[in-house]
Amino acid sequence: MKHLLTCQALSRDDAELILDSAQQMAEAVRGREVPKLPTLRGRTVVNLFFEDSTRTRTSFETAAKRLSADVVNFAAKSSSLSKGESLRDTALTLQAMGADAVVVRHGASGAPQQLTRWLDGAVLNAGDGTHAHPTQALLDAFTIRQRLGEVEGKTVTIVGDILHSRVARSNVWLLSTLGARVRLVAPPTLLPVAAQKWPVDISYDLDSALSDTDAIMMLRVQHERMRDSFFPSVREYARMYGLTAAREARLPGHAIVMHPGPMNRGMEIASSVADSPRSTITEQVTNGVWVRMAVLYLLLTSDSTSNTLHGTGTEARS
Amino acid sequence: MAEPAQKPPKSSTPPGADRSGAGKHILTDADINRVVNRIAHQILEKTKGAENTVLLGIPTRGVALAGRLAARLKDFADISVPAGALDITLYRDDLHMKALRALGPTDVPPEGIDGQRVILVDDVLYSGRTIRAALNALYDIGRPSQVQLAVLVDRGHRELPIRPDYVGKNIPTAREESVRVLLREYDDLDAVTLSGGDA
Questions:
Q1: What is the pLDDT of residues B14-42, one digit of tens each?
Q2: Under an 8 A CB cutoff, do A316 and B101 touch?
Q3: CB A68 within 8 A of CB A41
Q4: Which of A140, A231, B21, B105 is at a distance of 20 to 30 A from A4, taking alpha carbons?
Q5: What pLDDT is attached to residue A188?
Q6: Contacts A316 to B, Cβ<8 Å
Q7: Cβ separation of A311 and B1 shorter than 8 Å?
């Protein structure tokens, strides 16, 4: 595993290795006065963000710093990209600076894949267009495992703007790889045509999906990506697909409520639900750091000539 | 030098397969039992009763050995010594030179290790780099009053000034040789074998 571009490319073993490593990361620094490990000392991680994202960028930055890597933040708005520099030239600049890993967010689906052609270091997709956001899906799976014990056999209902959501796409692939049953609930206008071919159940009715849901994942309505009108009004959307207190009460007792953030309170999720004990929204943020630490560790510390994963094997030690 | 493990720990390996212990047997089941007993007695003697002591095994096989030592201390002196695990992977200085390794568990007694005598337990002592990493890992967790080292096998070839306090068996080896420690907890049998090289 040299890069992390999509969840589709992850085998079940890879995904479980990442989740197990994230668990160990959490335990390795929990309760420490100085929550820092020397693992990536001397390595450089570049955060290359062509879209604004405080949450994901700081999460990657925190993860890299906790592993003692040097972090360079590269925001497209304040860089030569605004002067017309191409992605390739940016990549060559990063290469020349000796970046060991590049964490990239880009509005165009496929940009991280393109970067892997020009960079020697690892490329981590931190969200590309409407394509994929693998570390978000991994932290969601980690959160489900933490709260519900395991992912296998659980029913995860993903609600809302599937069409524009890279989070939903990555979750569909990862959760089904891990053995969960994934159900998409959305207005027909917000479901991609290709969803019929995904390993999911599709429903247009949120109320009928509540009673057998173990985890419900509410997606943000992405106003900024909507050039057409996909539903009649915000009010109608909230009434049909919003997770209200009444709907929350109909979820099974153990069910959890997830949201990748940032939330439109009162639209896709009611404030009281977002702040209820079922809600895992702040845990998801914390878990994001462990998962990103695990991914950075796994991508940056393996022998570059070997792509295979090995067990702990103490006798391998010197 | 030893070969990387090709299988994850805790899965069973049928005798005769990859980890069957092919090579020259150095220690048998009974030998290992005797050696662990002896180390337990030495710990009691050297620490004058093993008060305020914590055993921390280095994954994977050091953890099993730490557990066995704790059980022996209970049998011999009726003293409960906590046995935990200390994963040192994130502290290694050769991570980018070797195949990727999965992280092991770190399990330290809830009361911590401040002021305690920590006995690190590992299966094979070789260059000493693992123990250097373990010392760094340990001091990030707390401040033990003293650190000692117990190993089942010392195969020599130290690259750092590290010396064990308790040694099960010294095995003179060539660098090309591999020492394999098999323990029931992971491998269905107890044995130490030496293979490879011209010897």
A1: 343 444 546 889 999 999 999 999 999 99
A2: yes
A3: yes
A4: B105
A5: 93
A6: 2-5, 98-99, 101
A7: no
List pLDDT tens digits, range A52-106. 888 999 999 999 999 999 999 987 776 666 677 888 998 999 889 999 999 999 9
Side-chain-facing half-sphere of B155: CA atoms under 13 Å: 26
Mapped to the 3 state alphabet, what secondary structure does B14-69 carry?
Answer: CCCCCCCCCCEEEECHHHHHHHHHHHHHHHHHHCCCCCCEEEEECCCHHHHHHHHH
Chosen from A68, A317, A318 to mutate, greatest number of chain B CBs within 10 A: A317
Q: What is the pTM of this model?
A: 0.86
CA dist A243 and A256 (Å) reads 12
Question: Does any CB of chain A come closer than 8 Å to the CB of residue B103?
Answer: yes
User: What b-and-e string marks burial along B88-113, b requiring 16 or more CB atoms within 10 Å of the CB?
Assistant: bbbbbeebbebbbbbbbbbbbeeeeb
List alpha helices for A49-133, DSSP H. Answer: 54-66, 87-97, 111-118
Alpha-carbon span B4 to B60, nearest angstrom: 13
- A128 contacts A104 by C-beta, under 8 angstroms: yes
User: What is the chain A residue with the closest CA to B178?
Assistant: A315
The predicted-structure confidence for A113-127, as pLDDT tens digits, reads as follows 999 999 999 999 999
List the domain boundaries for chain A: 12-133+284-310, 134-283
Distance of CA B150 to the CA centre of its chain: 7
Nearest CB neighbour to A316, from listed B5, B58, B140: B5
Annotated binding site of A for L-aspartate: 83, 166, 220
Question: Does domain A134-283 sit in CATH 3.40.47.10?
Answer: no
Q: Any bridge partners for residue A158, and if so which?
A: A184, A217
Shortest distance, CA A154 to any CA of chain B (angstroms): 26
> In B, residues 54-73, which contact A (CB 8 Å cutoff)?
58-62
Token pair listed for B60 = 């994977």
Q: Do A12-133+284-310 and A134-283 show the same overall fold?
A: yes
Looking at domain A12-133+284-310, which of 2.60.120.10, 3.40.50.720, 3.30.465.10, 3.40.50.1370 is its CATH number?
3.40.50.1370
